[in-house]
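Thread: Newbie trying to understand structure tokens

Hi all, I'm a second-year student working on a class project, and my supervisor (Dr. K.) asked me to get a predicted structure for one chain before our next meeting. I've only ever worked with sequences, so writing a 3D structure as a token string is new to me. If someone could post the tokens and maybe explain what I'm looking at, I'd be very grateful. Here's the chain:
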Amino acid sequence: MSDKFDVVVIGAGPGGYVAAIRAAQLGLKTACVERYKGKEGKVALGGTCLNVGCIPSKALLDSSYKYHEAHEGFKVHGIDAPNVTIDVPTMIGRKDQIVKNLTGGVATLFKANGVTLLEGNGKLLSGKKVEVTGLDGNVQVVEAENVILASGSRPIDIPPAPVDQKVIVDSTGALEFQSVPKRLGVIGAGVIGLELGSVWARLGAEVTVLEALDKFLVAADEQVSKEAYKILSKQGLNIRMGARVTGSQVNGEEVTVNYTEAGEEKQITFDRLIVAVGRRPVTTDLLASDSGVESDERGYIYVDDHCATSVPGVFAIGDCVRGLMLAHKASEEGVMVAERIAGHKAQMNYDLVPSVIYTHPEIAWVGKTEQALKAEGVEVNVGTFPFAVSGRALAANDTAGFVKVVADAKTDRVLGVHVVGPSAAELVQQGAIAMEFGTSAEDLGMMVFSHPTLSEALHEAALAVNGHAIHAVNRKKR
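---
Reply by user tm_fold:
Sure, no problem. This is what the structure looks like when written as tokens:
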């Protein structure tokens, strides 16, 4: 049996499903192949992000913060709630329901836009043919004018701590705990490790994070990463930098971890251990040997700036190609590719992809850091504004952190916005919108921001770039 499509997408994550919907909207006959099975044993759309990544982790982060607020933050408001408890299975059940609603929503969008769902494993053959091995083992081959590879990524395994999803878990297993571990270890102080560590720390776990690197959050602006380290440590995350895990032994319901720190051999025992050392592309079983598509030794598929592979008519997007492993980056690549297939000249601005860590407070940035710009020889002016003097943040009892705006000293063009604090992701997005239009710090300073809002912190930081902040003392120019 052989069907012919204008576009076949392999993978229905935030890159693949968005690409499929956009291609269908543009009048292209589109199919999308997906093999992932959800908890109910049926194919679930949405990829890692919707099923076991961005969305379920945010659900748990939100639930755990509400508990933390009730436990620790209500008294200052005059609210007495002495007997607050957490029902972990109910919290996990709520998370599962949110996932079910959203994955079902993607299926509805497929139907509404006329996307054909092919359930099974997709493999690219030569000549832009796609072999689909169904969940029942039946094989069919579909032909395509264009193929979009959107196979995503999976957690990296490390030999010193093999995942069993019971005592030693990856990011997926960490979303399924049915009770709060007393002692929780996290290997990796990146986005995933900090978010998941935060969830269980708020609910009462003693959390130790072991990070092999000596520097905390190397991708972030140094001022932001220092402040974030200070805030998260104060919240009870015991973050050990330069701690390299060398081995682990599971004994019943606990695990002993061996690691080296400052040249010393150390040991620590946990009830649960989360391995969160990053992700790698899922490209095994994706490409037939004669498909013609080239990838590197780590499994990343080679693409150009427009996500075209070495084979005309074959594209790759999202976590299986270069760049940041972010759902929103994958989605926008999916839109760009669909539009290019339809004959439009779409492109994507990779310089303005925001990054967010959904701890509380959030940590977010867009554009370049002060350190990166100085290393490039760019002279910059910097403005910062602390939430401690924001009326809105004070009213909400949420005053940790600051907004930082970095601008070119010669042109005043804003080159980076960096925030640690309440609603950091939303504030950074305001910065991204402004930067997309080539804003100067002066432009932002001349806009009217409503009062009282957290957004005013961005306004004041932009004013501070040129020494004009109203509600904070301006740094003297040297």
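A couple of things are worth pointing out once you decode it. The longest strand covers residues 139-149. The chain has twelve helices and 22 strands. Feel free to ask follow-ups in this thread.
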